[in-house]
């Protein structure tokens, strides 16, 4: 097995980080309308009737190509820190299939997302093969702002667009024998070439897994977009897991298969380096990584990595009220 090395300093994208003023202003306007009782349907009418540029921009903010309208979930409409710049969040990424550094966004454009299918199989009463367009129309889309914590001790805040995993579970109806779920990412050796010449020895395709009760939790989310737009390829288009109380590697990107199984599935990083990447992988400040502390995290921002604000890591990434009972 090759030695996996994770650098202790991280690259900063060359592109200058710009504030997300337009997005945030539109989002604030929507939130205020919803707060005073204007429904999404009424908002659609309001924006379609307007003739000026301001109402047009609002309409664009609530409409995704191929996916239609979405609502803002009031339970996850803000966190205790600012939303990360879209430029940074879309150009500072881990996507091991396209390379081992943080600047893989250009390489990831090779990902073919046309005619995407997602197979749901295994121990379910209603196995499905969803076309991605059908999937996005079938389940009501919502925006949720979640903290994102990488095992490498850096953190972001992302406004995701998608739907709760439990809605898909209700559609396929897992049987009583289903105890775990395995997620499989897109893999083609000619396209997803990995981080170097040794990549062929890795356990491709990338897989991740959850217990079925974790998947059924209110927080567990399938993302199809972010920042009011369709999900970029480097962020896991067109469908990825978002599990905010776990380290980021648990969120499989570019999912092509979801399988309900009886036994705990093997997963990519836990197979490669089990002492560094646990299957459970809940964010825990009291359990250090073998090569660094997890007690604090650095919040991505403009500037050199050493200048990023360092803050205490929260148990379960701050979502203990939702998930701590799963592990009691």
Mean pLDDT: 85
Largest sheet: 9 strands, mixed
The H/E string reads HHHEEHEEHEEHEEHEEEEHEEH
Strand content: 15-25%
Strand tally, please?
14
How much helical structure, as a percent, in the residues?
Answer: 10-25%
Task: Give the termini separation.
Answer: 35 Å
Q: Count the DSSP helices.
A: 9
List keywords for this structure.
9-stranded mixed sheet, 23% strand, 328 residues, 5-stranded mixed sheet, 9 helices, alpha+beta, single chain
Overview of this protein structure:
The protein has about 325 residues and is of the alpha+beta class. Helices cover about 20% and strands about 25% of the residues. The chain is built from nine helices and 14 strands. Strands 1, 2, 5, 6, 9, 10, 11, 13 and 14 form a nine-stranded mixed beta sheet that branches.
Briefly characterize the structure.
With 328 residues, this protein is α+β, with helices and mostly antiparallel strands.
Write the layout of secondary structure elements.
Blueprint: H1 21-35, H2 40-49, H3 53-61, E1 63-64, E2 68-72, H4 86-89, E3 117-122, E4 128-131, H5 132-138, E5 141-149, E6 154-164, H6 165-172, E7 180-185, E8 207-211, H7 212-215, E9 221-226, E10 229-230, E11 240-242, E12 255-261, H8 268-272, E13 296-299, E14 309-312, H9 320-323
């Amino acid at each position: 097995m090759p030695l996996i090395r994770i650098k202790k300093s991280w690259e900063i994208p060359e592109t200058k980080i710009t504030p997300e003023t337009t997005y945030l202003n539109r989002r604030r306007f929507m939130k205020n309308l919803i707060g005073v009782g204007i429904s999404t349907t009424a908002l659609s009418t309001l924006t379609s009737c307007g003739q000026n540029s301001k109402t047009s921009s609002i309409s664009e903010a609530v409409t995704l190509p191929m996916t239609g309208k979405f609502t803002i979930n009031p339970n996850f409409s803000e966190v205790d820190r600012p939303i990360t710049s879209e430029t940074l969040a879309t150009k500072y990424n881990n996507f091991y299939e396209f390379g081992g550094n943080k600047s893989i966004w250009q390489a990831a454009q090779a990902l073919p997302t046309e005619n995407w299918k997602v197979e749901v199989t295994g121990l379910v009463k209603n196995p499905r093969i969803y076309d991605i367009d059908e999937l996005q129309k079938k389940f009501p889309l919502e925006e949720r702002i979640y903290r994102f914590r990488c095992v490498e001790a850096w953190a972001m805040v992302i406004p995701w667009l998608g739907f709760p995993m439990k809605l898909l579970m209700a559609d396929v109806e897992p049987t009583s024998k289903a105890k775990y779920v395995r997620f499989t990412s897109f893999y083609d050796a000619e396209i997803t070439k990995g981080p170097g010449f040794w990549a062929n020895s890795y356990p491709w395709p990338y897989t991740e897994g959850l217990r079925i009760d974790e998947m059924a939790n209110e927080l567990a989310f399938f993302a199809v977009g972010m920042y009011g737009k369709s999900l970029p390829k480097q962020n896991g288009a067109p469908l990825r897991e978002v599990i905010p109380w776990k380290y980021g590697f648990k969120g499989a990107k570019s999912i092509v298969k979801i399988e309900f199984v009886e036994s705990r599935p093997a997963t990519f990083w836990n197979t490669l380096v089990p002492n560094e990447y646990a299957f459970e992988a809940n964010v825990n400040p009291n359990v250090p990584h073998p090569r660094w502390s997890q007690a604090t995290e650095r919040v991505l921002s403009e500037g050199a990595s050493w200048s990023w604000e360092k803050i205490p890591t929260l148990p379960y990434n701050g979502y203990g009220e939702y998930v701590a009972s799963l592990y009691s």
